[in-house]
Specification:
The chain has eleven helices and 17 strands. It is of the alpha/beta class. The two termini are 21 Å apart. Bound molecules: NADP nicotinamide-adenine-dinucleotide phosphate (NAP) and zinc ion. NADP nicotinamide-adenine-dinucleotide phosphate binds next to helix 1, helix 4 and helix 5.
């Protein structure tokens, strides 16, 4: 066991503070990673504030991890010292169920082990990437292609895969009409990926404040949901709507924007339940669906896809001492489009 410096919430809703956390000794299949950058996902904020239920504290969040391999266990074959690697929302799963067998570890029937706040195989609580180092079993470590800078790659490990997976699953391709609701961390990745897949992309944002950014990222159209004309003039206009909003939205209004056989996929995970009127799905054979991050093979595919298409997150790099301020700014919608913590600033 070794101690490393981390930023953790000491209690529900309390500001994060610097602490020491333990990392296990390297097992034969483990990889020790020197973390260089960790993205701040809205899920980190939901979690430490108790939005999704009680947690075990202190809790160091962070599941958008990019760094380099510092050491490997005796039987590791996939990664070598010095490799540029990433870790996302999962650090282990059963490896045997039907979901794991097809590489969909996020749907592990026995419950995958989350990167932070989960009970690990050894009974300890997992601690995330707002820390200097992490030890992860090799199968949950992915390669970061040379073309991607580590800081702008970090958010791909959650925001990238969470949007890539449903866009691929629902077969978004050239000519697909895709709307992305919410231009935040997830949304700005969804726009870039959908555009690269050849879709006609529309952003549905609360206002036109970020319109220039949205168009620059690859959106073809940018509409304000605060304007009633958006819902009046765009009925039956989309094949897929990807809802990335961290708060409840009126699903009925959005369902009317779907064409026949269209699907509204929710990835945003507000604490409150969302409801809709079944007549809105019946009248257009529409579907309401959800999607959870992505599996490990798909995460590697996403990183390779982003490298090939020159896609990465638009980031604001911050020192660890600015994490609490960054949380407030995320909650206020004041981020373009992801805060990334420079982990070197944790030292000292
Ligand atoms: P974020 O950067 O805060 O972006 C959320 C965006 O939603 C905001 O930029 C804003 O976009 C819009 N929004 C916020 N409050 C709103 C409100 N009251 N009404 C309408 N729109 C609002 O958050 P994120 O990191 O992208 O995460 C988004 C959500 O996805 C969170 O709930 C997170 O927990 C969840 N998530 C889910 C998964 C999964 O696997 N399913 C993975 C990661 C994250 P505009 O300013 O453009 O309106
Ligand atoms: Zn996340």
């Amino acid at each position: 066991m070794s101690l490393v410096t981390a930023y953790a919430a000491p209690a529900e809703g309390a500001p994060l503070e610097k602490i020491e956390i333990a990392r296990r000794e390297l097992g034969p299949h483990d990889v020790l990673i020197d973390i260089a950058f960790a993205g701040i996902c809205h899920s980190d904020i939901h979690t430490v504030r108790g939005d999704w239920g009680p947690q075990r504290y202190p809790l160091a969040p962070g599941h958008e991890i990019a760094g380099t391999v510092a050491a490997v266990g005796a039987e590791v074959t996939r990664h070598a010292v010095g490799d540029r690697v990433g870790v996302g929302c999962l650090v282990d799963s059963c490896g045997e169920c039907r979901a794991c067998a097809r590489g969909a570890q996020q749907y592990c029937e026995r419950g995958a082990i989350g990167t932070y706040g989960a009970i690990d195989r050894d009974g300890t609580v997992t601690q995330g990437g707002y820390s200097q180092q992490v030890v992860v079993t090799e199968g949950f470590v992915v390669r970061i292609p040379e073309a991607l800078p580590l800081d702008a790659a970090a958010p791909l490990l959650c925001a990238g895969i969470t949007t890539f997976s449903p866009l691929r699953h629902w077969n978004v391709t050239r000519g697909s009409r895709v709307a992305v609701v919410g231009l935040g961390g997830l949304g700005h990745m969804a726009v870039q990926i959908a555009h690269a897949l050849g879709a006609e992309v529309t952003v549905l944002s609360q206002s036109l404040r970020k319109k220039d950014d949205g168009l620059r990222l690859g959106a073809d159209h940018y509409l304000a949901t605060s304007d009633p004309a958006t819902f009046r003039d765009n009925r039956r206009s989309f094949d897929l709507i990807l809802n990335t909003v961290s708060a409840p939205i009126p699903l009925n209004d959005y369902l009317s924007l779907l064409d026949t056989d269209g699907t509204l996929v929710c990835v945003g995970a507000p604490p409150e339940p969302l409801s809709f009127d079944v007549s809105r799905v019946i009248s257009g054979r529409r579907s309401v669906a959800g999607s959870n991050i992505g599996g490990i093979p798909e995460t590697q595919e996403m990183l390779d896809f982003c490298a090939e298409h020159g896609i990465a997150a638009q980031i604001e790099v911050i020192p660890a001492s600015a994490i609490n301020e960054a949380y407030e700014r995320v909650l206020a919608g004041d981020v373009r489009f992801r805060f990334v913590i420079d982990i070197a600033t944790l030292a000292g």
